[in-house]
Design brief:
By secondary structure, the protein is α/β, with parallel strands linked by helices. The protein folds into 2 domains: about 110 residues; about 375 residues, TIM Barrel (Alpha-Beta Barrel). Helix content is about 35%, strand content about 20%. The chain has 14 helices and 20 strands. A hairpin with a 2-residue loop joins strand 1 and strand 2. The longest helix has about 35 residues. GO terms for molecular function: hydrolase activity, hydrolyzing O-glycosyl compounds. Belongs to the glycosyl hydrolase 5 (cellulase A) family.
Amino acid sequence: MMETVALFSSVGRKGDSSEMDKMRVSGSRFVNERGEQVLFNGINLVEKDAKNDFITPGGDALYARLAAQGINLIRFGIYWAKVEPTPGKIDEDYLGQVAAQIQLAKKHEIYVFLDMHQDLYAAKWGDGAPDWAVIDDGLPHQQGQLWSDSYFISPGLNRAIDHFWQNSPAGDGVGLQDHYLAMWQAVAKYFLAADNVIGFDLMNEPFPGSQAAAVRDTLIGYLGAKLQLSPEQLMATWLDDTKKQGLLAQLNDATLYGEILQQLTAPVQAFETSTLNPFYAKMAAGLQDLLNGKALFLEPSFFTNIGIPSAIDLSADKHAVFAPHAYDLVVDTNHFENYSTARLGHTLWVHQQVQEKWHVPLVLGEWGAYFDQPETKDISEFHILHVEQNQWSQTYWSYYDGYFTSPTAAVLDRPYPQAINGKLLGYHYDPATKVFDLSYDALPGTSRVFIPHIKSLDISQVAQQGARVDKQPIPGGDSGVLFITTGEEHRVVLHLTIE
């Protein structure tokens, strides 16, 4: 039994090379260049503070600490307003800043996918599009108690989104979507050779614009009838934080929740079928020669975050990864005592059905927004249990100053298989008993498992199964990687206590 590693000098690199393994999509899995199944345990770095020039502060020390806690994937937020601040002019200085962060991630063997982030469409109201891409026809903007309320009450915002989906011409006569595609092409060219960039998330939480009125009106009509409230009373209740919590309590019934979402499915899927799918097809066609093996991370409609089934087209010609988000209705509030695992479990089940339909990898691109609330430990464990059971990858929303002492950070700092040379049968870490179970049918070669507190790990059990076992500490902490090598086809079963 050896404590050093000769052939595998790091988690994601090729032997002694400074290059990282390129990833590709194979059916419902990510695989590396050796054909090993790869799983990602990740986090969002989406900086929204202009004082930091929209780059998360922390530098090399941040990436080192993330890697030491088992993070091997970052959803890195970039913005249309930063990439193309004036029509047709790409800011390569900004892309250079992003590239410097990607290099820091690579130094610590962390993969990245780039997220073209938007909330409320544009920097004018939230973040995303530049001012020149906002065509609101002079309509007013309105805000509610939550940032997302504006989607439902702001005429100017929805008009601007409509113009984007209609590919209306900007001031230079070029369509807004055409600008968006050209902007993405510039990004793809810039990062063409970046081996730790595994793909591009084309748009964060696509919102239907005025088409959302059909969803809103259907919800108000159906739920109002159920609860015997007028449309005006129901809308006022939803926009009042205190009254809203009472309403959410009534929606904790899984049957009622499912009935409501079923009513909303048709208008949500109508937007995806008529508008979002053609948009993604256009993007995929325009980017196909610039991917260099990278994947397109495709998000369904904003409304699927809460469990409405998606009609997104994830056909093979899109090099697609399904990248949904999963939030409960209490998101962006401090009412985590009202969090519902019944509602969340429904959402995760719905996402699983879409993945199985298309047989593509699923990366849970956003979940959480939990911060420091103690109730969120159990909720985070609920998420991760589903990630493990479905062999998904995930990127938690999101890193913030103070993340490393949060309940969720402790949950994510867990043992998991990073690369399996063979067929992964299942794995699970029980934080209550601190027991990690892993089983897979190994092919000749090496598999890699992230282990917190690796120095104290008793690995004699693995060696007794006829496998060679090597430990490699990760600098900056007590964690490391367990390399398990077999010379022939072999079933490996681990049952390890992680102190």
